[in-house]
Amino acid sequence: MARLAESATRLSSRTVDPARARRTSPTEEVAMTTPSSVPHRPRRRLQLIAAMAVAAVALSTGPVPGAAVAAAAPALVPSPAITVPPAGTHGFPFLAEAENLAAAGYTESEYFLSGVASSYVGLGVLGPSGRWPVAVAGRAAYRTRMLVRRPADPARFNGTVVVEWLNVSGQVDLSPDYWFAHDELLRAGYAWVGVSAQKVGVDGGIGDLPGLRQWDPARYATLSHPGDQFSYDIFSQAGQALRTPDGPNPLAGLDIRTVLADGESQSALRMTTYVNAVHPVAQVYDGFLIHSNSALAAPIDARGLGMPPAVRIRTDLQQPTFVVLTETDVVGHAPARQPDTATVHTWELAGTAHGDQWALDLGDPTLRRSLGSQTPAPDCPAGSAPPNDGPGHYGVAAALAHLTTWAQGGQAPPAASPVTVLGGVVIRDATTGLARGGLRLPDVTVPTRTLSGLRAIGGGPFCGLYGAHDPWNADADGWDRHDAGDPSDPVAPVSPEPDLTALYPTHARYVAAVRAAADAAVAAGYLLPPDAAQIVATAQASPIGG
User: Fold this and answer.
1) Is it true that the peptide bond before 493 is cis, omega within 30 degrees of 0?
2) DSSP readout, 139-181?
3) How confident is the model at residue 494, as a pLDDT?
4) For residue 411, what are the CA distances in angstroms to 34, 40, 288, 403, 417?
5) pLDDT value for 55
6) What digits encode the pLDDT tens for the residues 94-108?
7) pLDDT of residue 66
């Protein structure tokens, strides 16, 4: 800690070379700013901002009570010092991939980031529009880590880096959107970076699951996190480190065109706040993927006061934000629904869940490599319907491809209808149990089972996030009781499950219907061609029909 304090003193007093940083961190003076209303550009140049108000800000962990403060101006974000961690006891990073990345042409490495981060405080009333001015409230030294997966061959790199705010809802670092977007990331040549932006990931939280420092003291003992009020600037500096590395280059010199920020679930709440309050100050990222958020946003400061009960994504930024919601999320997000604009689009994916079988299958081997028997699980009641195994990952893959194009100055994503919500309830088809409305992929338009983003209450605290699927087999499953635990028929009146033989008299007819639905989804921009091919191949290999 003494060395970190010395580092804080040196970094806070040194001059940042504009050649090495795109924005400088505000020191004692901050000035009010409003993002300029100009057409989107994929890469921004430094803009001259007229100072409208200036105030002193103490270098502490919180604002000086009663002190006059003004909003922070866009200013250079410093690039933190980058170092290579020791091998440690385990010999690999926490959350190191269990799959053979080399076989996919990828490498994985880890780096430490050290610097001085700013915390922020909101100014005035934080309204539902998300246009939140902030001021720098304090500074503190930190040291955290980033996990990097990139193409081994520079020729395979597509120019885009996805920086994921690692999720800590389970009290350890998790990478849900790496798992949801996995296939598109690897086949399209993205680089992916996971950032331990929050204190729980570093120091641990509630329960027995270890933070990084406890998991491998020989590797991570020197990490230090000053608190989540500093997480936003830590995330900014992580993005800046990729553009102008101060030390070993995490991307080994890959030619970066676009840097996208991404967060799912709890991290999506923090991403909402980042876009609304911090991005106008930092201006590090070229676009944002906010996956599975609610109407809420994470607190800006340590006190967490004054946050509105529902907040939209601000629409006055140059950089685009793509909000992708599963069926699980839409009721909680409904108070913050907003129309698509030039820089904000939303998809609501019918038949999908906040967490699902796809993410479980991809993530479980990686988590077991790091945590063994402590690996978190949905912990749903025995005999209940299995987790949703729907098309959420296909929707995320298409959204990522669209956001990349959009952030580079190309066409915005296609619009999609919202899931039908009435009176705080998702409205479902009485025959199939499937949600009405929403973006509908082949699993929903040519259904063979009920896919729900919701499930009956019970089990562990995360069970409900995994939704459910219910095969159509003449109500032969133990949960087919025509009650709240029956995904295909959760409410009266009693309705039997659809008859697959009647729906698809022959296998050929079923495959033709799937192929037509997949082609239509590709043409609409809702599905990527490689995923359409996989969906058709799965249908061909199935016994459905006749």
Assistant:
1) yes
2) EEEEEEEEEEEEESSGGG--SEEEEEE-B-TTSS-B-HHHHHT
3) 85
4) 25, 11, 15, 9, 19
5) 30
6) 999 999 999 999 999
7) 30
Nearest to 324 by CA among 353, 293, 351: 293
Give Cα 407 distance to the centre of its chain. Answer: 16
Relative orientation angle of helices 392-407 and 357-371, to the nearest 10 degrees = 90
Written as one string, the DSSP assignment of 181-248 is: THHHHHHHT-EEEEE--SHHHHH--SSS---HHHH-HHHHTT-B---GGGHHHHHHHHHHHHHS-BSS
CA 35, chain centre distance (Å) = 24
Question: Under a CB-based contact definition with an 8 Å cutoff, are residues 235 and 261 in contact?
Answer: yes
Q: Which whole number is the average pLDDT over 254-258?
A: 97
- Average pLDDT on 479-499 reads 86
Q: How far is CA 252 from CA 93, 102, 149, 260, 285, in A?
A: 18, 16, 11, 18, 20
Count of CB atoms situated within 10 Å of the CB of 18: 11
At 49, which amino acid appears?
Answer: I
Express each pLDDT in 377-411 by its tens digit: 888 989 999 999 999 999 999 999 999 999 999 99
Rounded to whole angstroms, the Cα distance separating 103 from 116 reads 38
Cβ atoms of 155 and 189 within 8 Å: the answer is: no
The reported pLDDT for the residue numbered 10 is 37
Angle (CA) 138-143-146 rounded to 5° is: 120
Q: CB of 350 within 8 A of CB of 429?
A: no
Greatest distance between any 2 Cα atoms in the chain? 76
